[in-house]
Amino acid sequence: MSLVLTRIDNRLIHGQVLEAWVPHIGADCIVVANDEVARVSFQKTLMAAAVPKGIKVLIDSVENVARAFHSHALDASKVLLLFASSGDAVKAHRCGVDFKELNLGNMHGGEGKVRYSCTIALDPADVLNFQQLEADGVRIVCQCVPPDRERSWKHLLHSVEG
């Protein structure tokens, strides 16, 4: 398996992912690892229906996705791995999903979140999760769409903190 992009995007499968990222990275398989979405079959069906024919889709819990990665079921695929949150990313990494880089795309605001860019809002748990991933050797970058310049997530923290 070739893991061509690992991304946090609250919206998971949507137009930006399908129209910008999939052709840019040449993915032929989209994997969504999120426990909540895995429990809602209607939401899984809607997301899978949006994906063009010829692109495989796996939408499952974080643990089941980790099992699929370890089973070599996706070995012949170029995989775009999507998480909805930093917690999903940490959980997957702890389950043995080996990714070296994590792209932050869309992380919406909410209670306790601080907006760091037009698409990224973080709370203290997100910051802690990213620090843990970095300590494990994961490079974390912010890049909403392929033409955007990559920036370290820490650059965002410093730009708000001054």
Structure characterization notes:
It is found in: Cytoplasm. Strands 3-2-4-1-5-8-9 form a seven-stranded mixed β-sheet. It has a two-stranded antiparallel ribbon with strand order 6-7. The model has no long low-confidence stretch (mean pLDDT 94). The protein is built from seven helices and nine strands. It is α/β, with parallel strands linked by helices. It is globular, with a radius of gyration of 15 Å. The N and C termini lie far apart (41 Å). The longest helix has 12 residues, at 124-135.
Topology:
Layout: E1 2-9, H1 15-25, E2 29-33, H2 35-39, H3 41-50, E3 56-60, H4 62-70, E4 78-83, H5 86-94, E5 101-106, E6 114-115, E7 121-122, H6 124-135, E8 139-142, E9 151-152, H7 153-161
Parallel strand pairs: 1-4, 1-5, 2-3, 2-4, 5-8
Antiparallel strand pairs: 6-7, 8-9
Helix pairs in contact: 5-6
Key attributes of the depicted protein:
PTS_IIB_sorbose-sp; 162 residues; PTS_IIB_sorbose-sp_sf; alpha/beta; cytoplasm; PTS fructose transporter subunit IIB; two-stranded antiparallel sheet; sugar transport; 7 helices
Given the C-alpha coordinates, what overall shape results? globular
- How many strand segments? 9
Strand order of the largest sheet: 3-2-4-1-5-8-9
Low-confidence segments, given as residue ranges, are none
Largest sheet: 7 strands, mixed
Short description:
InterPro entries: PTS_IIB_sorbose-sp (IPR004720), PTS_IIB_sorbose-sp_sf (IPR036667). This protein has helices spanning 15-25, 35-39, 41-50, 62-70, 86-94, 124-135, 153-161; strands spanning 2-9, 29-33, 56-60, 78-83, 101-106, 114-115, 121-122, 139-142, 151-152.
